[in-house]
Amino acid sequence: MGQVVRSICTHLFQGISVALIVATLGFLAVNLTRGDTALDIAIARYSEDLADERVVELVRREEGLDQPLFVQYCQWVGRILTLDLGRSLVSREPVTALLIHHFHYTFLLATAAIAVSLLIALPWGVLCGIYPGGTFDHISSMICSALVSVPQFVIGLLLILALAIRLHWFPVAGFFSPAHLVLPAITLGIGLAAVSSRVIATSLAEVRGSLFYRFGAMKGLSPFRVFTAHGIRNASIPVVTYISVQAAHLLDGVVVVETLFAWPGLGKLLLDSVLARDIPVIQGACLLIGILYVAVNITVDLICLVLDPRRRNRLATS
Amino acid sequence: MRTPLLQVNDLTIRSVAQRKRLVADVSFTVSRGEAFTLIGETGSGKTLVAQAVCSCLPEELVAGGAVDFKGVNLARLPAKEKRRIYGKELFLLPQEPNSALDPVMLVAGQVSEIFRYVRRYDPQELRHTLAALFSDLGLSLSGNGRLYPCQLSGGMQQRILLAIGLAVPAEFIVVDEPTKGLDAISRASAVKKLKNLLSKGKTLLCITHDLSVARALGGRMAVMYGGYIVESGDVWQLLDAPKHPYTRGLVNAAPENGLIPIAEEVLAAMKTAWQNG
Predict the structure, then answer these.
(1) Which of A313-317, B66-70, B211-215, B247-251 has the weakest average pLDDT?
(2) Torsion angle, alpha carbons of A148, A151, A152, A153, to 10
(3) Complex ipTM, two decimals?
(4) Hey, are the CB atoms on B168 and A220 less than 8 Å from each other?
(5) At A73, is the secondary structure helix, strand, or coil?
(6) How far lies A252's CA from each of A30, A106, A258, A266, A296, in Å?
(7) Does the beta carbon of B236 lie under 8 angstroms from any beta carbon of chain A?
């Protein structure tokens, strides 16, 4: 148990470092690649006509942009540590509130997409894994390759055309009811399922080929018993890891699908703020994405520790 | 004459990929209640024979000839019928405990599932039998039993595997290298457990490279070299008065006889005899 706590602490420390590095990179990227930040803020605040040199200088002093970059950076880190991410230059809303609002939508979509993908991938992958190398497995493999190579917006557009415009089953875009969640979730879920079903199939086929699995049958256990007792947990270890990677990507916000369905998630927020040069929001989003990655990674490591005694053993003996 | 439980006739095992014969013309019978030991050096094909007997050879290998268990050729049986025999009538105890034990299941569970799902013991009877079996093997149910295979040493894993071998109800048990990785005391105790199985009326086919195991089990034995059986017969007769030069070499090479290596000319002569068919 002590090892697990120590492992969590190590992870947390690494995680905070990673999040800070990501946020710093975001800060530097915005500050180094752009022209005059003060001018952009002035334009965003007072419109292009009013933003003359005097106003820009005022803004520069007010926002501390006349300070050296290092001082700005320290001030920015200081604000982060007090959880103050500033206000959006465009909407004037607090960045924290904006991020929470948009992340909530991204989280909804990510959860729904993973659920759809598992609904498809679990039975599909298990069937392929039980008969590896069979006709069904070969055909599935081809379908998966095809699905992976189709861009998401094509799947999304086809779904909109068929299910929204032709059949009127679901709304085309927006975010006003649970029905709005269906099409973007399916669009994302299909692509995810194509890959994760292969991961499930490969993992299961490998477990079924292993000596301990065949030994289960030799002991006289029924195939169902061997599958539930020796198959599921062993096969699930790589699957859990892979699905967490997918989850981390989804939580970043999925720009293409969110834009296509006008879904107000993190991806859309990031895209809009980059286009509007809304610096505090970009920086806040970078920080949040860094933290999310770290959180997902810690969660996966913990789940794997629970699932796999070999890892616990390595941790205990290291 | 006791009825033969297992009859192996001209068993040949080929590797399709390597286009090579790994085992050739192996024939022997095992009668009900007897011990039969298959002895030979690493790579002589004895494990393959064990797998062929249980009809669980790796997929890339093809077996020819006939293996009749209770008069039925297992290789011809559909998978469903084979499942009915495995564990209940026929059982193969593999030699690699590290890969035969499920890495993510407590070792006690891997033994108890046999009592629970194959022998259908009720929970109280199960706990009692399991505890007795563990203590019989010098293990403790609440100690070693609550560990995962990765937390056990090789010798301990081998003992868990032996516990599984003792737990299955099968009357015919094939054991592959049951004493591998065990120290002298554990080896003696493992051999004793195998003899107990015999005294319970079970039939044993023991695969080993250890002459002392063959001696202890008694019964009959066959010596394998390079995929062939070079000599077979009663254990004591064969070990006391080996006829074939390779068997003689094998007996002289045993530690108790002074570790005399097998003469090169014997091996060379056998290789030529072989190439000439």
Answers:
(1) A313-317
(2) -160
(3) 0.88
(4) yes
(5) helix
(6) 19, 8, 11, 7, 11
(7) no
List the B20-31 sheet strands across, edge first.
Answer: B20-31, B4-15, B61-69, B72-73
Q: How far is B261 from chain A (nearest CA, A)?
A: 34
Chain A interface test: which of B57, B86, B148 (most A C-beta within 10 Å): B86
Q: How does pLDDT run across B196-251, given as a tens digit for each residue?
A: 999 999 999 999 988 889 999 988 999 998 889 999 999 988 888 888 888 888 88
Residues of A in contact with B100 (CB under 8 A): 211-212, 215
Number of residues that make up chain A: 318
Q: Is B68 helix (H, G, I), strand (E, B) or coil?
A: strand
How far apart are the C-alpha atoms of B227 and B71, rounded to whole Å?
25
Chain A residue closest to B84 (CA)? A220
CATH code assigned to A97-276: 1.10.3720.10
Residue B29 CB coordination number (10 Å) = 16
- Domain spans in chain A, listed from the N-terminal domain onward: 2-81, 97-276
Place of tokens 């094509």: A154
State the angle between helix axes of A279-307 and A266-275 in degrees (0 to 180), rounded to the nearest 10: 150
